[in-house]
Amino acid sequence: MCTNRKWNMSNAQQTLAILKPHIVKNPFSLNQVKNIILKSNFEIVCLKRKIISIEEAESFYSEHKGQFFYNRLVSFMTSGPSELMVLARENAIQEWRLLMGPTKVFRAQFENPCSLRGQFGLSDTRNATHGSDSPESAVKEIQLFFPEFS
Ligand code: UDP
To answer: Where do the catalytic residues lie (predicted)?
Structure first.
């Protein structure tokens, strides 16, 4: 579901965030991650809990097809419900990626232990969260999971 009010803060940007299945499975982690999101001045504009289908995961991660981790990634992302969000704030794409921390969990734990991946990541695949990496991917990813909002 998405907030009804028209979102019109000047300088605001939107990004797609995914809280991956191992976070959603653990109510304590889920609650902690959501509190961190709100404390970091993001507005949760849309929120949907769903099991990502194999077709959606394959299309979402198509740039990684052929990588050693691709099959493991698709199978993890479809293993249970994820929470999908459109987050908004100034400079949302970069700020969300900063809050997430590096992709690889050992780097996140070493370089930025307070990041979401540093705190909640379990492995390079189960690294807690996803965030769009550019304005173009944000538009594409929001359209994929929230066609009713775009
Ligand atoms: N991934 C993985 N092993 C790796 C690198 C990436 O399992 O060695 C997974 C991880 O879940 C990551 C996703 O593939 O979030 C997409 O990788 P990308 O390089 O796009 O990183 P992100 O944009 O998520 O930081």
So the answer is: 130
Measured CA to CA, the distance from residue 20 to residue 78 in angstroms comes to: 10
Q: Which residues are known to be catalytic?
A: 130
- Burial of residue 79 (CB within 10 Å: 0-12, 13-18, 19+) is middle
The answer to whether 5 is annotated as binding is no
Q: Among 71, 103, 126, which is best to mutate for testing ligand 1, by the most ligand atoms less than 8 A from CB?
A: 103
pLDDT in tens, 58-90: 999 999 999 999 999 999 999 999 999 999 999
Residue 43: inside a domain: yes
Q: Is residue 150 part of a domain?
A: no
Residue 132 in any domain: the answer is yes
- ipTM beyond 0.95? yes
Q: Could you tell me the CATH number of the domain that includes residue 89?
A: 3.30.70.141
pTM for this model (two decimals): 0.95
Total count of domains within the chain:
1
85 alpha carbon – ligand 1 mean position (Å): 18
Residue 47 Cα to ligand 1 middle (Å) = 22
